[in-house]
Design goal:
With about 120 residues, the chain is of the alpha+beta class. The protein has a single domain, classed as Ribosomal Protein S8, Chain: A, domain 1 (2-Layer Sandwich), CATH 3.30.1370.110. The protein is built from three helices and four strands. It has helices at about 15-35, 50-65, 85-95; strands at about 5-10, 35-40, 75, 110-115. The chain has a four-stranded mixed beta sheet, with helices on both faces. Strand 1 (about 5-10), helix 1 and strand 2 (about 35-40) form a beta-alpha-beta unit. The radius of gyration is 13 Å and the shape is globular.
Length: about 120
């Protein structure tokens, strides 16, 4: 059974990159415990000069978590498309992703984490 989609806005109060990573870690751990299939992280894309660092650090951290086996995968917002193989596989773990408003929008201010 596919888990639900949790949305987390980590950029709302312009945290430091280190604080943003703490929030992501918290949500990954709790998302798994709560039966979440995927987490949509809203980190922004750097228009304020702050989001760019958060996006970069978020994706570096998620690559490390994937390598360690802590998450299944992650999809950069700009690749979140039905034409992307990782996205199609992600639908199996979280059917709600099929109806997400950012699907096909190539939004580099988000990242989808597959738990």
């Amino acid at each position: 059974m596919a888990g639900y989609l949790k949305e987390v806005n980590i950029k709302s109060d312009l945290p430091t990159a280190a604080e943003a990573i703490k929030r992501i870690t918290y949500n990954i751990r709790n998302g798994k415990a709560w039966g979440c299939g995927a987490i949509k992280i809203i980190h922004g894309y750097g228009s304020t000069g702050k989001g760019g660092r958060i996006r970069t650090e978020t994706r570096r951290y998620l690559a490390d978590q994937k390598r360690k086996g802590m998450i299944r995968d992650f999809i950069c917002g700009e690749n979140f498309s039905i034409f992307d193989e990782s996205t199609r596989i992600a639908f199996e773990f979280c059917d709600e992703l099929r109806r997400d408003s950012d699907l096909e929008r190539h939004n580099n201010g988000i990242t989808i984490v597959i738990l």
